[in-house]
Amino acid sequence: MASKKAAMAMMAMIVIIAMLVDTSVAIDLCGMSQDELNECKPAVSKENPTSPSQPCCTALQHADFACLCGYKNSPWLGSFGVDPELASALPKQCGLANAPTC
């Protein structure tokens, strides 16, 4: 249960940070580029969610989960259209063998 909440919070923060950053500025957040962060947004959005794309899942494979877990208590989680259930399911949907625990 705790790892599910941690994964959910981690993915929500990825999406939130991607939404806040101007797309004309290249960023690298916790081992994920702006493009990789953007790949995961549709899979965790409240409106018309999609299955995670292969580029999203590939990005999660090399993401720095310890870094991402540092964002888990952000007060912004619900304010950007992120569905917590979808976010928590993302690592499993991507087939990550060692889903993060924060």
From TrEMBL:
Domain Bifunctional inhibitor/plant lipid transfer protein/seed storage helical: 30-102
UniProt keyword list: Signal
Record flagged with keyword Manganese: no
Keyword Signal applies: yes
Span of the signal peptide: 1-26
Protein name per the record: Bifunctional inhibitor/plant lipid transfer protein/seed storage helical domain superfamily
UniProt xrefs under InterPro entries: Bifun_inhib/LTP/seed_sf (IPR036312), Bifunc_inhib/LTP/seed_store (IPR016140), DIR1-like (IPR039265), NsLTP-like (IPR044741)
Any one GO BP annotation for this protein: systemic acquired resistance
GO MF term list: fatty acid binding
Organism: Arabidopsis thaliana x Arabidopsis arenosa
